[in-house]
Write a structure and sequence with these properties.
By secondary structure, the chain is an alpha/beta fold. It is built from 11 helices and 15 strands.
Length: 332
């Protein structure tokens, strides 16, 4: 099989396409024929050894795939050879075949295309866990989404609208705001690109306050980080819940006096760890998400597709922060 491998620490340009032996399923495992692999920000970090998990090299990036079950290991039940599934693997997905624990596979309906399936579980899983379980978002509340045109951001927009919330989309361009509005956001705000000096930080905070109005937000979904986080917290409503999702703009330093003045919570969202720690919660969330997909309330927006040989370009495109929705690597 062919696989795109990280053999040395570095950016997407260090990845190489090589031929590897086909994997063999052991007890509790399956081998998938990979049809599509979602590209996510952890793929940018993991090849640079900046992610929470550091696989032993060489490894293929790609933690979210869709494909067909090719082999079943001993003791595997509930799956059959030829079945269409999606899987959350952490890494290894940018390859023609993937060895993965059977418990990480979820059957998908015939009506779900492979590219949408590969763009589904990480983004919607993260955002559903964030909004429902960590943010306790309720119908009628106001949600502010930073990075609303990205994969997890658009998922948050759609899920919040399905839950009956008012959604304000914050993005780096009007084109991105327009995309978020097309996916259900009620309004939007374009924020400038940082870094910011002291006056710039104050202007950014005022911009977000104006977008949220005098009552502020009830829940903020921060998939951006950096200077945007403090500015967002300054626009919190009373008892607001600030969800920490990601840091492509850097890890923020928050003055904790703001949490006192606003009586707001800063809430961490580590979906990957929650899947392992709370499997029953994850199983129910996946069931809920599949129901919302079947009802047409959520639908992954796949903006670009790259062949396996160009997987490095796909990761580089995501790292440039120009991508909207989901980028997917596909196998013919």
């Amino acid at each position: 099989m062919k696989a795109v491998l990280s053999k040395a620490v570095g950016g997407p340009e260090t990845l190489v396409l090589e031929e590897l032996p086909d994997p063999v399923a052991g007890p509790g495992q399956v081998v998938l024929t990979v049809k599509a692999c979602g590209v996510n920000y952890p793929d940018v970090l993991i090849i640079e050894d900046k992610y929470q998990f550091k696989p032993q090299r060489p490894f293929a990036p790609g933690g979210e795939v869709a494909g067909v079950v090719e082999q079943l290991g001993e003791g595997v039940t509930g799956l059959t050879v030829g079945q269409r599934v999606l899987a959350s693997s952490g890494h290894g997905g940018m390859a023609e075949k993937l060895l993965v624990d059977a418990v990480r596979c979820t059957p998908i309906p015939d009506t779900m295309p492979f590219d949408e399936a590969a763009a589904f579980i990480l983004t919607y899983g993260t955002s559903y866990y964030a909004l429902k379980d960590r943010g306790q978002l309720k119908a009628g509340e106001t949600l502010l989404v930073l990075g609303a045109a990205g994969g997890v951001g658009l998922a948050a927009v759609e899920l919040a609208k399905a839950a009956g919330a008012k959604v304000i989309a914050a993005c780096s361009s009007q084109e991105k705001v327009d995309l978020a509005i097309a996916h259900g956001a009620d309004s939007g705000v374009v924020y400038p690109r940082g870094p910011f000096d002291k006056d710039g930080q104050k202007a950014l905070a005022n911009l977000i306050k104006d977008a949220c109005g005098p009552a502020g937000w009830d829940v903020a979904y921060d998939a951006v980080g950096g200077d945007y986080s403090e500015a967002t917290i300054r626009a919190s409503g009373w008892n607001g819940r600030f969800l920490v999702v990601g840091f492509p703009s850097g890890i923020p330093k928050i003055p904790l006096n703001l949490t006192l003045l606003k009586s707001c919570d800063i809430v961490g969202v580590f979906w990957g760890a929650s899947v392992a720690r709370e499997p029953k919660l994850h199983a129910q969330n996946v069931k809920d998400l599949m129901g919302l997909y079947a009802e047409g309330k959520i639908k992954p927006y796949v903006s670009e597709r790259f062949p396996l040989a160009k997987a490095g370009d796909a990761i580089a495109h995501l790292a440039s922060r120009k991508a909207m929705g989901k980028v997917v690597v596909v196998n013919d």
